[in-house]
Amino acid sequence: MKISVTVNGTRYERDVEPRTLLVHFLREDLGLTGTHVGCDTSYCGACTVLVDGRSVKSCTFLAVAADGAEITTVEGLAADGELHPVQEGFWERHGLQCGFCTPGMIMSSVALLEENPSPSEAEIRHALEGNLCRCTGYHNIVLAVQYAAAKLRGEQPPPADWEEVGA
Amino acid sequence: MTMYPRKFDYVAVGSVAEAVEALRATEGAKVMAGGMSLLPLMKMRLLSPTTVVDIGRVPGLDSIEDRGDHLAIGALVRHADTAANELVRTHAPALATAASLTGDVQVRNRGTTCGSLAHADLAADQTAAVLALGATLVAQGPSGTREIPADEFFVDTLTSALEPDEVLVEVRIPKGGTGSAYDKLGRRGGRSDYAVAGAAAWVERSNGTVTAARVALTGVGTKPTRARGVEEAIVGTDGSASAIEAAARRAVEGVTVLEDLYGSEEYKAHLAEVYVARALAAALG
Amino acid sequence: MSTTSVLGGIVRRREDPALVRGKGRYVDDVKFPGELAVAFVRSPFAHARITSIDTSAAAAMDGVHAVYTIDDVRHLGPVPAQVPIGTLRPLLADGTVHHVGEAVAMVVADDRYVAQDAAELVVVDYDPLPAVVDLEEALRDEVQAHEGKSNVLLTWHGQDWWPGVTDELVDPKPQIEEAKAREDTVVVSLRMTNQRLLPTMIEPRVTVANWNGGYGAFEIWSATQIPHALAGAIGKIFGLPSNKVRVVAPEVGGGFGAKLNIYPEDILCAFASQQLERPVRFVETRREAAVATIQGRGWVGTATLVGTRDGKILGYELEAICDMGAYSHNFTVAIPALGLFVAPGQYDIPTHYELHCVVTNLPTTDAYRGAGRPEAAYYLERIIDHYARTIGMDPAEVRKRNFWPPDAFPVTTSVGLTMDSGDYARNLDALLEWADYEGMKRRRDEARAEGRLVGVGLGTYVEVCGFGPSALAGLGFSWSEYGMPSAFNGSGVVRVNPDGTCTVIIGTGPSGQGHETTWSQIVAEELGIELDAIEVLHGDTAESPFGVGTFGSRSLAVDGTAAFEAASRVRAKAAKIAAHLLEAAPEDIRFADGGAHVAGSPDKAVTWGEIATSAYQPHTLPEGMEGGLEATAVFSPPNATWPFGAHLAMVEVDPDTGNVEILEYWAMDDCGNVVNPMIVAGQIHGGIAQGIGQAMFEHAVYDEDGNLLSAALMDYPMPTAGDLPSFKLNRTTTPTDVNPLGVKGIGEAGTIGSAQTIVNAVVDALAPLGIEHVDMPLRPRAVWEAIQKARG
Question: Which residues of chain B are within 8 Å of residue A126 when distances are taken between CB atoms?
């Protein structure tokens, strides 16, 4: 089936099998391998992308159903090479280790901050329940989102607790 | 152990009538809205429709309307929209809460309230809410539309009253009552994730007396069900803590409680009482 | 900030700019022209004889290139293991399947979708046999998991675990028995389960093998923690010289021990690639990972402790059955031994261990973050808590009365191993004061007075890691199975390039630990080269020095030291060159701010670029000096390292539902010197979360037929952000002298310290009801059932 999608501002027309999952379309057909596959039951969130502005799991989305959609993947966040504040927050606050869940985690965080510019810790944690991370224990991911939220509001990000720790 | 669906044909329809026709004409066709229930089954190859009939582009199905005595939630209204909608929050807080506790953010952004109801999972959140709210589900088939009371809609595990060539086009939530609420225990504890057990309650109170109540359970039995014993027991009382406690004791009357990884029959029956009491207290509060 | 003070400082990770942009290269992101995909036909039975396999329909399908069974690959032998005790795994089931999910046939096709379509067409007939699932039943050995073979592979004994190490040790069993018989002692005992777990790294396994018949060489990209071992194994199996196998492990999406194995799929992809002369890729699905990747833990045992009424512990015993699963992989039977190594924990107590390693018809167990040590810490710290409660003494006080004193180090424990350094009382006191333990207990008591179930739990641990002395590897590990020498060396190459930048090449196989950053800091500190001018390469066997890999919290202490020593050698040579250029004496040369200068004369300076250019031009070198500016170092430490710590948690239980909420989590860890406190904190956070995952949520549940009921993530609830609190971390610093950096290792510590801390806290919350123990995971159901039982 012929579909036409706009991904990170570029329009693509491709022929896909109906059963092709959006995540495989992005990775295999468009070569956008920043979006990852971590599970098979719509649970881990590594495949999270924005479709028409909303965060969704691209492993549970048929590519043919995305015909006509505007999609943003992690590759589309950094404008002119400048990191998006959420990407910067993950870097500054050590919000990633192996980095495999990170693109999905970042996309969910971007979606959260667009909806709620000043989330509480509890709201951040609740909003990220659809994204599993095995490395960080989420502690620094929360700090990363708080960092990005402050930056996006034009404020000075709060320090990380581990900046003061040390014997 | 696969995550790659078997082959199927795909048709993106422009109207419900087209969808119904496609379902009628094709043996083994399945309708898809958000796909959050259908696609996981297809990826596991537990379900392999011959044709997926995508209603995702049908215009006019994505709104929540105030129709005077009831709200109408269209087939393409996402869980997130149901959860955030002011009308739903005002007139049907049990449903707004249940929608807000369905899946996770991404699932709520894609999955639809009607899709979840049509899937009729035994642990779905919004099923209990629509039962308690006394909702009516509107199905469109080859011979037109029909209204199905929520009480008749959930037939068995993963089985609704919909015919294979029918599409659930909207769910209607009557206004009225003095309060409704939903609460649950999730699989990891807390309120997130699939319900180990959950309960929704709707009440009407007048001059300090509970004059009407509907209470429903999810995650406990083979399908979402009304807890009629509780309703009987709470109506006519003052809705006090002791009245709630007494009524909640009848939570699983007539319900076949199912054991699973997360709860024995005894535990689930107990949780049913706890969450019926919590939902009732919140609805009456 | 001066580039010479980066050691011990927070440096943002060098790895991250690519990863946060989605530009990281994981194995499945790198494609080869003409690739084929595989799918496996896996056994639905835990134990069954295969009566027939019909692959004809699958083989005839469009887009299918081959279907293989054991008959095609039997000549390659089984999957190698470093501790080859037990039955090694055949590449594909050979006549009998021994666990659900065992691979029976492999389909190679144009893509993953088609491969799966074809796999469905393979018809396998089975004749089911009785399956061994229960550990007690396995130990009874009446029904055998492998027909004709005993289920009991071996029993690790506390004082008799390795000839040569333990010859002089006295079994304290008689002493313990004597203490038990005394009238003035208390004997406490608990039977506890340490449940099976799924490692669940977010990137499942993935391997692509690319045989080039022209060069007679393999290029294999694999998400592995042990690239050199995989290269060695492939070479040995296919009869190739090791330099004809190149393994590349680029970014690896988490490992936690699960990628510390060679798997049949790796070898089968190589085989198929050689047969078909096409690149062949295996990408594991999540539910496949749940049956085909190794699993962790799986112990059931009884801990017994004897002590006086005033808190002096006189003996500790653990008898446990340890589940090895159906086949032995890399370290399988050695994992319980790692528990034995730390059996006495931080305490000077006679310890007797008996660990029965039994085979079951379940997937293989092997190293999973902590590997044996979390199990050991769990049993010990649970029984000590139980003892403290029994004698009515504060659990912190009981621990302090039995710690090894700081002046005892190095100390040889009752299981015959020597711990490098420790100051346990100082560490615990620091935690108790910082977290206001007394105030915490007061708040608990106030909550209790209101009828709430609030508990405070403490747990300590000592870890053995930083493997390690090569003699240890030589004892029981047959690395020759992987075509490798038996060693736990670390290795590093430091090269200053002609433009003054530096390339560091290391033999580790990181999967998120931040080696590029940490190693940059070490080298920057030693050479005074700016961090940004240093590039760290790893994971490519064609370019990196021979390395053992990343596991057992070993990389920094061993390979980090090697890189440090290589840098020292480069520095020494650079000093001579700089001295020559500046007409000064080498001992007067100082390195800082991107170059070298003469002590006391900062104007007499040369940049690293000038030094390096000179190094590559023989005519500008001192007379007789060899050209070039690089060094390779191999480091073999004299001992393992022994980090330790103490953790503290406060929890509340909802009596109506059994739901547990973690109110506070405090940790005081000691991993010796710290290179990057940010990375260390991150390792501890993740470790704690994994331990909490075990304590509260995770469980690989099998039915009596050996079917995994929790294969999908929705049934294997690992913690999400919403389930955890933020963690409060602090450190004490007790350096080690087994390496010049004084560093110990931190990858596993959080996991080793946390599960018992949570369970101790929950049991403390439930103690007013008379509850003494609840087995993990402490899901609401388990806690509620314990409450019901206690209330009668």
Answer: 192
The answer on B167 and B88 residing in a single domain is: yes
Query: Mind giving me the DSSP string for chain B?
Result: ---SPPP-EEEE-SSHHHHHHHHHHSTTEEEESS-TTHHHHHHTTS---SEEEE-TT-TT-S-EEE-SSEEEEETT-BHHHHHH-HHHHHH-HHHHHHHHTSS-HHHHHH-BHHHHHHHT-TT-HHHHHHHHTT-EEEEEETTEEEEEEHHHHEEETTEES--TT-EEEEEEEE--SSEEEEEEEEBTBTT-SSEEEEEEEEEEEETTEEEEEEEEEESSSSS-EE-HHHHHHHTTS---HHHHHHHHTTTTTT-----BTTB-HHHHHHHHHHHHHHHHHHHH-
Residue where one domain finishes, among candidates B174, B204, B236: B174
Rounded to the nearest integer, the mean pLDDT of chain A is 96
- The Cα C560–Cα C298 span in angstroms is 33
Indicate whether B166 belongs to any domain: yes
Chain B 9-68, residues with CB within 8 Å of chain A CB atoms:
9-10, 12, 32, 35-36, 39-40, 42-44, 52, 54, 56
**B188 in contact with C, Cβ within 8 Å:** yes
Measured in angstroms, the CA of C288 and the nearest CA of chain B are apart by 5
Residue range A123-164, pLDDT digits in tens: 999 999 999 999 999 999 999 999 999 999 999 999 999 987
> B97 to chain C, minimum CA–CA distance in Å?
17
Classify domain C3-23+489-635 at the CATH class level. alpha beta
**Chain B: nearest CA to A148, how far in angstroms?**
19
Could you say which of B174, B198, B219 is where a domain stops?
A: B174
- Complex prediction ipTM: 0.98
Give tens-digit pLDDT for C357-390: 999 999 999 999 999 999 999 999 999 999 999 9
The CATH class, in words, for A85-156 is: mainly alpha
In C, minimum Cα distance to A97 occurs at C512
| B190–chain C nearest CA distance, Å | 7
**A55 part of contact set with chain C, CB < 8 Å:** no
CA A109/CA A105 separation, integer angstroms: 6
Task: Break chain A into its structural domains and give their ranges.
Answer: 2-76, 85-156
Identical fold for domains C3-23+489-635 and C31-129+202-254+259-292, yes or no, is no
Give residue B161's domain range: 64-174
The nearest alpha carbon in chain A to B36 belongs to: A60
Round to whole Å and give the CA distance between C759 and C757: 6
For residue C325, say if its preceding peptide bond is cis, omega within 30 degrees of 0. no
**CATH of span C31-129+202-254+259-292:** 3.90.1170.50
Residues of chain A with C-beta less than 8 angstroms from the C-beta of C677: 162, 165-166
Q: List pLDDT tens digits, range C324-337.
A: 999 999 999 999 99
Q: Which tens digit of pLDDT belongs to each residue from C737-772?
A: 999 999 999 999 999 999 999 999 999 999 999 999
Output the pLDDT for position C475. 64
Cβ separation A56–B110 shorter than 8 A: yes
Number of neighbouring beta carbons within 10 Å of residue C170? 11
Task: Pick A2-76's CATH classification: 3.10.20.30, 3.40.47.10, 2.30.30.100, 1.20.1510.10.
Answer: 3.10.20.30
Q: Closest Cα of chain A to C682: distance in Å?
A: 6
Which residues 734-773 of C have a C-beta within 8 angstroms of A?
A: 750
Kindly state whether residue B165 falls inside one of the protein's structural domains.
yes
Among B2, B47, B104, the residue to mutate for chain A (most A Cβ within 10 A) = B104
Q: Which residues pair with C534 in a beta bridge?
A: C502
Best probe of the B interface among C206, C653, C657, by most B CBs < 10 A, is C657
